[in-house]
Structure formats: structure tokens, C-alpha cells
Design brief:
single chain, 72 residues, mainly alpha, 0% strand, elongated
Length: 72
């Protein structure tokens, strides 16, 4: 029995992983507490986390399936 994963299923898993990563980066309180001492490190965390989320929006856009959108 072979398990064949279609391209749309793979894209769906990638989109979910990116979304979970974004939630972890932005909403995990221990990460905020660790970097929240003030100073330059908290500013770099803020800028870096927001830059990663912005880049992930482009990644989500690239993994969108144009054929699926036309069917819906």
C-alpha cells in the first residue's frame, strides 16, 4: 500500500505549518517574557518577529493553489 500525497495536500500542510510558526512567534508568552527585559534585544525581537511574519505572508501567497481557487 503506497501513500501518495497530492500537491494540494502538501501545500495545505505547508500553509498550516507556516501559520503555526507565526502563532508561536507572535503569541507565545514565554518568548515575550524572555525578550521583554527591555533594551535592544526586545526591539530586535519585535522587528525580527514581525519581519518573519511578513515574509511568511509571501510564502503563503506562493503556496496558494490557483486551480483550487478557480473551482470554489
Amino acid at each position: 500500500m503506497s501513500l501518495v500525497v497530492s500537491a494540494s495536500d502538501r501545500r495545505r500542510y505547508i500553509r498550516r505549518a507556516i501559520f503555526a510558526f507565526d502563532l508561536l512567534i507572535l503569541l507565545a508568552p514565554p518568548i515575550h517574557w524572555f525578550f521583554g527585559n527591555g533594551g535592544a534585544m526586545s526591539v530586535w525581537y519585535f522587528l525580527g518577529a514581525n519581519a518573519l511574519v511578513t515574509l511568511s505572508l509571501f510564502a503563503l501567497w506562493m503556496t496558494s493553489n490557483k486551480e483550487e481557487e478557480d473551482v470554489r
